[in-house]
């Protein structure tokens, strides 16, 4: 059960995470941009990401449909914790895309923080092998990526934080979170309430 499509999931994760790992090697990242030009590099980067995401979605979906491989039974409390982590994850992910507020300033890399919260929450709430591979891999990648900022070049000084960025982040984050509570069964095929 579930084994036949695990290779598609793993291949998708390798492509997705390897493609996103190039930025952790500043010299390689700069070299590729110089070789291909910025726009072509971005296009190739996007194609690799889309292929990786498509394979992850396809592989994980087929794995779930074929029969998941249980490893442990996640306690009900972990599902509730996941709901709280998802609210935080949505706010952090939205903050990463909006003008700098105090949330963005404090988290420093809110996209990675949100991604880690998302992966950790889903890892705690799901005890099957496919979920452990999917969410564990993304969590590990996000941790390594965050650590890699220690040796990456520092960019320009960011603008001073403003409360407006936080108001937008929390407002849009809560709306997106509530929307996902209802859309999760439609988009993902799993109800968050049951």
């Amino acid at each position: 059960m579930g084994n036949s499509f695990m290779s598609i999931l793993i291949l998708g994760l390798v492509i997705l995470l390897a493609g996103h790992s190039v930025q952790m090697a500043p010299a390689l990242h700069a070299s590729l941009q110089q070789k291909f030009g910025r726009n072509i590099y971005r296009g190739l980067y996007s194609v690799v990401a889309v292929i990786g995401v498509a394979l992850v979605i396809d592989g994980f979906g087929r794995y779930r449909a074929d029969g998941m491989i249980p490893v442990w039974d996640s306690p009900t409390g972990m599902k509730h914790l996941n709901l709280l982590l998802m609210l935080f994850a949505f706010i952090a992910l939205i903050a990463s895309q909006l003008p700098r507020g105090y949330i963005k300033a404090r988290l420093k890399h809110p996209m990675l923080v949100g991604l880690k919260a998302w992966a950790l929450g889903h890892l705690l709430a799901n005890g099957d092998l496919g979920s452990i591979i999917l969410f564990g891999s993304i969590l590990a990648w996000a941790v390594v990526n965050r650590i890699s900022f220690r040796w990456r070049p520092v960019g320009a000084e960011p603008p001073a934080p403003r409360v407006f960025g936080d108001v937008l982040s929390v407002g849009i984050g809560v709306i997106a979170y509530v929307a996902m509570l209802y859309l999760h069964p439609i988009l993902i095929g799993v109800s968050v309430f049951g």
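The first helix runs from residue 6 to 21. The chain has a mean pLDDT of 93.
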